[in-house]
Design goal:
two-stranded antiparallel ribbon; mainly alpha
């Protein structure tokens, strides 16, 4: 269901191509999408520093203060404190760099509190006309939301009697579906009905044909929209495309260390290793994108993409993270 074609799939699909070509994607001369985000959002270095300062404040000072207050408290409280701090630090950074002068405080509040995406443009500048949202699209978004609810408060409760660790992973998957797919999809359609051309932060990740396609076009585009203009693009002239891409994934790894390893006090280095693997996977797939491999490229790319994404997942979400944070949180919300 999550891979089903939607309103935004149709908007992003290029003529004559079977794969959605997101208008933000950056393509290299051989046609390989790079997970570097929207080229027109390249921020001048002097403005990027403003955003970097806000991100450093949120990712450095605030979590340390939160740790001081919650060192003896539940680990899941610390995790959500770090997530909220990072989220609003990124919102402030993007607003400082890309919002036009004179944008009102009420606009900033709508952008910050009612939408998980990071692009201020739909809220500050008029865009193209929004296509009408079909009933099928509303049902799809509602179905994603319902699936997340069922996984959290239904399947998890059944599995917990047989395997606690598996129940934790099921509950975490439900949280991803609910908070990453269902609710943001509903929010995007709500704003589209009001005339703002916003997009879901997830874009059919099950249809990804490569790692660059997955990370650059389909999975958590809000994070990409922060990392690319504030880190990758300003550093590209100095380190090149490949170096900027590695830096972007390194930033992602460090952020996940703050969100996962830091609150659970376990698995340090795992998230960083996972995302560096993704970066090198993107580079390897691009290297193999030669005429010699054209015939079998799609099949090989899908297989290698699935392997790179799933095989090292224990590095990203270790068992201690599930045991110390996910399961206690699921108990608090009544899922187990």
């Amino acid at each position: 269901m999550l891979a089903e074609e939607s309103h935004w799939t149709r908007v992003d699909t290029a003529v004559g191509s079977n794969a959605p070509q997101n208008r933000w994607a950056e393509i290299d001369p051989r046609g390989q999408p790079w997970a570097l985000g929207p080229p027109e959002m390249i921020a001048p270095v002097r403005f990027a520093r403003i955003g970097l300062g806000a991100c450093v404040l949120g990712s450095g000072v605030v979590p340390v203060v939160a740790f001081a207050f919650w060192a003896e408290g539940p680990s899941w409280v610390l995790m959500w404190t770090v997530i909220i701090a990072l989220f609003f630090a990124a919102k402030v950074a993007m607003w400082q760099v890309f919002a036009p002068k004179g944008a009102s405080a009420s606009t900033f509040l709508r952008y910050s509190l009612t939408w998980p995406g990071m692009l201020p443009r739909p809220f500050t500048r008029p865009g193209p006309a929004v296509e009408s949202i079909t009933t099928k699209e509303w049902l799809l978004a509602a179905g994603k939301t319902l699936l997340g609810v069922v996984l959290i408060w239904g399947v998890t409760r059944l599995v917990i009697h047989h395997n606690h660790l598996l129940a934790g992973y099921v509950g975490m998957a439900g949280l991803f579906v609910l908070l990453g797919f269902g609710v943001p999809h509903l929010a995007s359609m709500f704003w589209c009905r009001l005339g703002l051309n916003v997009e879901p932060i997830m874009h059919n990740p099950l249809l990804a044909r490569s790692l660059a396609d997955f990370w650059g076009r389909r999975w958590n585009r809000a994070f990409r929209d922060v990392v690319c203009p504030l880190f990758c693009h300003p550093l590209m002239p100095r380190f090149g495309r490949g170096g900027a891409l590695i830096i972007g994934f390194l930033v992602s790894g460090l952020v996940h260390e703050l969100v996962i390893s830091f609150p659970s006090r376990s698995g340090f280095g795992g998230p960083t290793a996972y995302f560096l693997m993704q970066a090198f996977g993107v580079l390897i797939q691009r290297r193999l994108n030669t005429p010699h491999f054209v015939r079998h490229r799609v099949i090989l790319s899908r297989i290698s993409t699935f392997a790179f994404l799933t095989a090292p997942l224990p590095l990203l979400y270790p068992a201690l993270f599930i045991d110390r944070i996910v399961l206690p949180f699921l108990r608090v919300i009544g899922a187990t």
